User: Fold this.
Amino acid sequence: MQTLGTDDTDRLEKSVGIVTPQVCHITDPINLSSGESLSSYSLVYETYGELNRQRSNAILICHALTGDHHAAGYHSEADTKPGWWDSCIGPGKPIDTNKFYVVALNNLGGCSGSTGPNSINPDTNLPYGPSFPMVTVKDWVKTQAKLSDALGIKQWLAVVGGSLGGMQAMQWTIDYPERIKHCVVVAAVSKLSTQNIAFNEVARQAILSDPNFFEGHYVAQNAVPATGLKIARMLGHITYLSDAGMKTKFGRDLKQSNLHYSYETDFEIESYLRYQGEQFIGRFDANTYLRMGKALDYFDPAADFDNQLEQCFTKTSARFLVVSFTSDWRFSPERSQEIVAALVKAGKAVSYANVTTDYGHDAFLMPVPDYVNVLTAYLNNAYTVDVEEQK
Amino acid sequence: MTDAKLRQEHKLIAEWVDSNSVVLDLGCDEGILLAHLAETKQVTGYGIEIDINNVVAAMGRGVSVIQADLEAGLAGFDDKSVDTVIIGQTLQSLRNTEKLVDEIMRVGKRAIVSFPNFGYWRVRSYLYFRGRMPVSKRLPYEWYNTPNLHLFTIKDFEQLCRDKDITICDQRYQTGQHMNSMLTRMSPNVFAELAVFCIQPKASSS
Assistant:
């Protein structure tokens, strides 16, 4: 066996270390927004830090479009890639596992262990495939509440999410207004813009029109709609970055010293996008991706409240932190400011930071210093006021 | 516990703010006044601040702080949705001062405004004797790098109130660490270094 170098030890010590995913089987049937139902389902999740005696220090992390339950730490000593939000969750990090008990899950319909299109349908003993129901943000929050029950958490100190995760955090304050003390909404919107839906539709069409998609039955056909997935991911990545950020990172740099005069990879940006696309094929499931995209498109909590967003928030006494990034054009600062304005109208406690960065939408996953400081300051105060002083 | 950074004028402002009221602190800095008001008067409300480091500091104090540029106005706030709008030593540093005064009177049932008095005798004599733009402890900048774009006197502010049908409910003065000394009460426009006004729109003052 290879001995671990100092760097490796550091890597583990600076994170929550080695974590093991757990599974929660939920046998209560769930009626979904689509009208369909599931008689039972499983959610895979990870936890970091310790739940205190009062159960008052629990933070739920909601993942974005292609995230999962592995938000921090490593799965083994050999594992080199930490969880997707390791920059933010861990000892001494903004979501400080020395203070907080952190729960991250893979949402229903996902492809990382929770019940989803690739799971076996107990009624047919075959994979659900395309017959797996559509799921919405509202459905996810319902299942997350079931997981909270199973973990014995009556009230979250905070529900935290970026992008699609931020939408779930908002939905918590609407559907379970008394079960959440702080709602942290990063780089999210209260509903998608026309342009957002348009981009999602192109990504969808890339998958749906891939000859290897087989109308969603690709597993049974031993096929993978790789081209569709790849193009969808490449398109997604363009919307995650800003023009200025791309320029700084790649410019017009060439992969090799001269132009090919062919469709080979000429520019670094092409190479980057192709790489991201390729990586995605092995990691993500097409039926899940399609469903996640639809969940984004369908999210519009104000629709149930006469299109008055402020009416959504009347019942909650949660405090809010809203964060946006100056170069995010996918979910722009103006869209976050709509949420802030609605919360002000509703008379809710809300703090808002618009962090200057070139990282675009992707910034919510990056350790941008101002962003890290905002999260740290906000959550430290939440800990002091709602955990320490309540003991 | 009183924050060591609490300024003299903050204590006066705190006296004027009603318990359990809603306040909006424009240019709230590190949220020191708002945290003090929340603790001593159970007020709710928001601070508006443009500088991210101040926003972070205010969040650390548990203040609801919204990062925004006051030059853009107060679009997110409904008419008369705030009991007291506070704007401390900020009016003089805005490009569009008039617009913000209008916005303050729209959003607030009343407002507390503090500003450095450019009519203060030391400022006057600096300009008179040296013939150069005044630099002092309270106005520590050179003309070419000052954030203070609209310098005005107490008389100027009183005229603004008349022009805009604004009622002055109360006004106090500070010079050095002294509040309302005899001299400042006698001739504020000459002897006051800093003025604190409580104002409200005429329509709601009857």
User: Anything to note?
Assistant: The longest strand of chain B covers residues 166-175. Chain B has eight helices and eight strands. Chain B has a mean pLDDT of 93.
